[in-house]
Amino acid sequence: MNENLTKINSSFVSERINKIRFVEESQAQLEASNFISGSSEIKNNVKFWKLIKNEFADEIENEFIPKAVSKLTIEGEVTGLEKIDRFNFAISSGSSMTIVSINPGKNEMNKLRESASFKNLHKFKTGDSALCMGVSVFDENISTIGEDGKINVISANNQKVITTIDDTDSEIDWE
């Protein structure tokens, strides 16, 4: 048996996490020890987690446990979470899409911050808000899909909506 295996302990979390992505510490990193999560609760949170040494571990228990080190509260249930680059993530929630950044500072805790927000991306023809159901990232382009049947393409660099494709579902009349 390989003695160099890292043992990870599971942890109880008092919220419903429904999206999760690994975070790279560096380009040369071989093991994943950080991740970001999104929840769908009354207070919808995005959290940055680190695997930390379990100071209470013995020979039976595992060596590392996940610990949330930073939290950002956002509007609406997290419906999508995708990586843009090493420190930036696109998060769909409610009728919006938010770009969340991780501050990689060495002297302070890694902190999450909202670097851009695109509110009310999705609306029904009646003007009512529609949920942003998902997000996808390719290079610097971010696409969102909503329950209104629209696809929005956003530039992460310019932080502007490049194009909107209406009526992607031609079989349904939304009026």
TrEMBL record:
GO terms for cellular component: nuclear pore outer ring. Its main location: nucleus. Keywords: Nucleus, Repeat, WD repeat. It is found in: Nucleus. InterPro entries: WD40/YVTN_repeat-like_dom_sf, WD40_repeat_dom_sf. This is Uncharacterized protein.
